[in-house]
Amino acid sequence: MELYFPGSTSLKGKRVFLRSIRSHLVRDRGATVAEVGYQDLWQRSVIVVAVAASDPTGLDHALDAAQAYLDGRDWEVTRVQREVYEVDV
């Protein structure tokens, strides 16, 4: 997901937003979150939200809930890309 933080005036301010995002998604959604792009810009970020699920319905539910949390906050979601990897056991 690509995020835009219009209220951020520094890298420290952006980190506050990212910590909040990470904390919520890890605690409430069981996700893993990593910033993978625009680390040096204070109003933009690209994050990866990873979720594991035992079935496609559970995965869709978890990703939809994560996206719903990110929409409508103090930042804007400017781009979303979903990739699903299935492991055969």
Structure description:
The chain is of the alpha+beta class. The protein has a single domain, classed as 2-Layer Sandwich (Alpha-Beta Plaits), CATH 3.30.70. It has 2 helices and 4 strands, in the order E-H-E-E-H-E. Strands 2-3-1-4 form a 4-stranded antiparallel beta sheet.
Amino- and carboxy-terminal Cα gap: 29 Å
What about the largest sheet? Answer: 4 strands, antiparallel
CATH topology: Alpha-Beta Plaits
- Principal-axis shape: elongated
Strand order of the largest sheet: 2-3-1-4
Helix/strand class: alpha+beta
CATH superfamily: TT1725-like
Radius of gyration equals 14 Å
Q: What is the string of helix and strand elements?
A: EHEEHE
Strand content: 15-25%
Write down how many β-strands occur, each being a DSSP E stretch of 2 or more residues.
4
CATH class: Alpha Beta
**CATH architecture designation:** 2-Layer Sandwich
Determine the fraction of residues in helical runs and give it as a percent range.
25-40%
Oligomer: single chain
Contiguous uncertain segments of 5+ residues: none
